[in-house]
Amino acid sequence: MILIADGGSTKTTWCLVDGLATRSFFHTEGYNPEFIDTAGIVASLHQNLPSTLATPDIAELYYYGASVVSPLQVATVTHGMQAVFKQARVFVGHDLLAAARALLGQESGFAAILGTGTNSCIYNGVRVTHNVDSLGYFLGDEGSGAFIGKGLLRDYLRGQMPASLAANFHRTYSLERDTILDHLYNRPFPNRFIANFAKFAYEHYYNSYCQQLVKEAFTLFFRNIISLYPDYSSYTFNCVGSVGYHFRDALTEVATTHGMKVGKIISSPIDDLVSYHLAVAP
User: Fold this and answer.
1) What pLDDT, in 10s, does the model give residues 157-178?
2) Computed from CA positions of residues 205, 207, 210, 216, in that sequence, does the dihedral angle turn out positive or negative?
3) Orientation of helix 145-158 relative to helix 163-173, angle to 10°
4) First-residue to last-residue Cα distance in the chain
5) Quick one: CATH architecture of 2-99+270-280?
6) pTM of the full predicted structure?
7) CA distances (Å), 83 to each of 6, 43, 119, 207, in order?
8) In the record, which residues are listed under signal peptide (predicted)?
9) Could you report the per-residue pLDDT of 68-106, keeping only the tens digit for each?
10) Which residue ranges make up each domain of the chain?
């Protein structure tokens, strides 16, 4: 059996493929090696994998994850997977490669991720050939859930959010300044905490404030990241991720304004990623 995983910073979506190519899906938390070590990955897998999953029967495991870039980050995740799936041949790669394979298959083109974080690349049908660093949620990640959530929190705390919307925000989350800052600076996974507030922008997108916030986030995504790719407008814009998918109308508008024709926008890469692996399997 083959197990394929798409690991974001918040959630990992898994697909088990049996000998008849039947697909079974399940979820665990995300395993971003910037925020979790090998021991944490092993503990989480033991706790969260379905009890019906026979790990010794997994022959191949393909795990694609957020921030799995450096040799050390790859090793952190690989050792965690190998400790649980002892019989499997394990491949660990970046979630950007998963996005490109899901969106483009074996064709060349442009692929982006707009979820908790942001990433993008030029792909030649085999590997990523050019990547403009998104710089993470501290310095960049324009257009991401974390970026949108950060804007909401900043405006709420500074009193710049419209009063009726701010009252709704307070009723929804009941968060005071000290609690928010404690989550950001003292608790684990601050990127997940911030990105969760993008849901509020989606649920209140009828409000012009939320529309403007989201469009500004996407405009900065194109201005500060996408426009740095040589001849970027010659590519079709393809995107995976919950933020890009749920705000796809605004994203399409901004992409068109910047001269990019929009192609495929999907919420999750897992179905197309599984199809890719079945297509290239020997």
Assistant:
1) 999 999 999 999 999 998 889 9
2) positive
3) 110
4) 14
5) 2-Layer Sandwich (3.30)
6) 0.84
7) 19, 10, 29, 48
8) none
9) 888 999 999 999 999 999 999 999 999 899 999 999 999
10) 2-99+270-280
**CA 61, CA 10: separation in Å to the nearest integer?**
20
How far apart are alpha carbons 33 and 30 in whole angstroms?
9
Report the C-alpha gap between 39 and 79 in whole angstroms.
Answer: 9
Tell me the β-bridge partners of 245: none
Residues 6+ apart with CB under 8 A from 3: 14, 15, 16, 17, 58, 60, 61, 62, 85, 88
CB burial readout 163-193, b (16+ within 10 A) else e: eebbebbeeeeebeeeebeebeeeeebbbbb
Rounded Cα–Cα distance for residues 246 and 198 (Å): 10
